[in-house]
Amino acid sequence: MGTQDTVINQQLAGKHILITGCTGFLGKVLLEKLLRTNPDIGGIHLLVRGSKKYASIRERFEAEIQSSTVFNHMRSQDAAAFDELCDEKVHVVAGEITQPKFGMNDDDFLALADKLDMIVNSAASVNFREELDKALTINTLCLHNLLELSEAGDIPVVQISTCYVHGFNTGDIYEETKPPAGLPFPRNEMGQYLIHDVVQKLKKKISKVKEKAKSKEQLSKMLVDLGIEEAHKYGWNDTYTFTKWMGEQLLMEKLYNKSLSIVRPAIIESTVLGPQPGWIEGVKVADAIIFAYARGKIAMFPGDSNAVIDIIPADLVANSIVLAMAKTFKSPNQCNIYQSCSSGSNPARIGQLRDYMVDEGTANFEAYPKLFRGKRPADYFPLAPQAAFDNAMKAVQMPLDFAQRARSILGLHDEKWGFHKNIDTAAKLSTVFAFYSQPKYRFHNGKLLALAEELGVADNQDYAVDPKIIDWKQYFSKTHLAGLEKYALIDKKQGDSTEKPQTAQVKSISKAKSSSSKAGVKAAS
After folding, report:
1. Is 252 helix (H, G, I), strand (E, B) or coil?
2. Can you give the pLDDT at residue 500?
3. I need a labelling partner for 44 at 20 to 30 A (CA). Which of 34, 113, 190, 337 fits?
4. Residue 446 and residue 465: Cα distance in Å, rounded?
5. Taking phi first (over 0 means left), then psi (-120 to 50 degrees means alpha), and beta for anything else, what does residue 154 get?
6. How far, in Å, CA of 439 to CA of 171, rounded?
7. DSSP annotation string for 393-435
8. Is 0.85 surpassed by the pTM of this model?
9. Tell me, what's the pLDDT at 418?
10. Cα–Cα distance between 95 and 22 in angstroms, integer?
11. Rounded to whole angstroms, how far apart are CA atoms 158 and 125?
């Protein structure tokens, strides 16, 4: 199941790697990549939270990870060999990343540290509107626990972050740490940003909110509001990117002069090459808009047709991580930042992708029965400036709100009163995603491309990282839509459907009052 020998294979041979977050979308793609292209790797240790649903942690791995369709290619070649490879190479470690020592006793924790050659942290809360205490815990504070493991065995760390840690900074953005666009953070003599004081301030504000809240629902809403308010204050669009930036700074401070690589993907979507084109799990950032269009939920969306949106296929991200791992072994005691992105070298304009989606949907909707449900979508999907969109939403919502209240008073409860819900869907999607559909930046990946050259894999498709390989028309109108149809949507007769245009991102928005919604839209405009 392996590929030709490369510097990457040589660097990873015999090494034992701990990966967190492998139950997630990117984690599965990374695990498949390592197993398929690096059969000589010493072992892959997965930190997985225990579940009462399963008799053992290994059973959870087999049910939620090993059974994934991401491994279909490997199974098709030799199913027995794939299962044998998993049994031999994959070691499942029961642990909770947010707990000191992952909830292990001292002996087990030190024994784990003694086995490992590298830690790859893919765990994160990617909910843009997460409650501040939760986002802070998983995206920032739990890195103290990773650092404790790293220090116990002098273990290198590869941190998976996001290009959007740059917040409200605009223009050309390179593989570096830019100053926050809002309130400043203190810095030490090495120029590193120190997060401790800000974290303490946030903790105090969280405690005050918890004292004031009178119910779980109110507490959740208040913590979402607080997260957005603080993120905007310091220069970020949402709680996710704010707390991920602080996580980067914590690692760079504590691992100074040690081995650290940070990989920043842009908007991760379905695979472009392998293990099979179009593989995806769940609904991602751009997909919420696709679903809303496919189901006729919204007729317009805020966005700049000429702006460049940064989408990167998941397999190119996984390859970037593997390259960073090899480089960390090859050149220890360095801090390297790599961006896995497309806008700097193969830009895709939002209006262009919109046109591909509409053309494919109107011409071939019958080829996507689960996505379009047999209905021909609209011929046009306009993108409007933020101010115009907001005014249109207000103009439509006010009479609809009045009419719905009147119907309620009269006892007229019509379950088909769907237009009002569609307007609410548009407003919620706008609040969550408008920042990403009206970009004012270009991400660059020169260091990542130079790394591919250094490792001798620039022309090796197994480790492709250059976004220039992407044909946007083919990818967005064929590969990606077909992937959504085949992998993201599950026939309800076969199991639970994952078709959720209102993802966790959008669901969380409904917890917040208009204060956070308006703030989110205002900051994105």
Report:
1. helix
2. 42
3. 337
4. 11
5. left
6. 9
7. HHHHHHHHHHHHHHHHHTT---TT--HHHHHHHHHHHHHHHHH
8. yes
9. 45
10. 13
11. 17
pLDDT in tens, 503-525: 444 444 344 333 333 333 223 22
The answer to whether 30 and 122 have CB atoms below 8 angstroms apart is: yes
User: What pLDDT digit, counting tens, does each position of 131-153 carry?
Assistant: 999 999 999 999 999 999 999 99
Identify the residue whose tokens are 């969109």: 389
Closest CA to 485 of 354, 367, 348: 367
CB 13 within 8 A of CB 59: no
Let me know: does 223 contact 209? Beta carbons within 8 Å.
Answer: yes
Looking at residue 486, what DSSP letter applies? I
C-alpha span between 452 and 459 (Å, rounded):
8
Give the number of C-alpha atoms closer than 13 A to the C-alpha of residue 155, restricted to the C-beta side. Answer: 28
Rounded CA gap, 463 and 319, in Å? 5
Residue with tokens 């650092």: 147
- Cα-Cα-Cα-Cα torsion 403, 407, 409, 415, nearest 10 degrees, comes to -130
CB 48 within 8 A of CB 123: no
- Residue 22, C-beta contacts closer than 8 angstroms, at least 6 positions apart: 28, 30, 31, 46, 47, 48, 65, 122
Distance between CA atoms of residues 443 and 447, nearest Å: 12
| Segments of the chain scoring below 70 in pLDDT | 1-4, 388, 390-431, 491-525
Q: Is 354 helix (H, G, I), strand (E, B) or coil?
A: helix
In angstroms, rounded to a whole number, what is the distance separating the alpha carbons of residues 226 and 516?
8
**Residue ranges in 331-410 assigned as alpha helix (H):** 350-364, 369-372, 386-409
> Which of these, 285, 47, 291, 257, lies nearest to 163 by C-alpha position?
285
Distance CA 342, CA 440 (A): 14
Tokens of 213: 């809240």
Q: How far is CA 190 from CA 20, 194, 202, 472, in A?
A: 30, 11, 25, 42
What are the structure tokens assigned to 244, written together?
């991920």
Contact at 8 Å (CB) between 301 and 389? yes
* Among 379, 361, 444, 386, CA closest to 176: 444
* pLDDT score for 302: 78
- Distance between CA atoms of residues 448 and 421, nearest Å: 44
> Alpha-carbon distance 524 to 518, whole Å?
10
Q: Which residues sit opposite 47 in a β-bridge?
A: 20, 93
* 125 closest CA partner among 98, 101, 93: 98
Tell me how far apart the alpha carbons of residues 359 and 366 are, in angstroms, rounded to a whole number: 13
The two most distant CA atoms of the chain are separated, in Å, by 74
Strand bridging mode 308-309 / 348-349? antiparallel
Q: Which H or E run includes 43?
A: strand 43-48
> In this structure, are residues 242 and 232 in contact, taking their beta carbons and an 8 Å threshold?
no
Per-residue model confidence (pLDDT) at position 181: 96
Please check whether residue 315 is in contact with residue 27, taking contact to mean a CB–CB distance below 8 angstroms: no
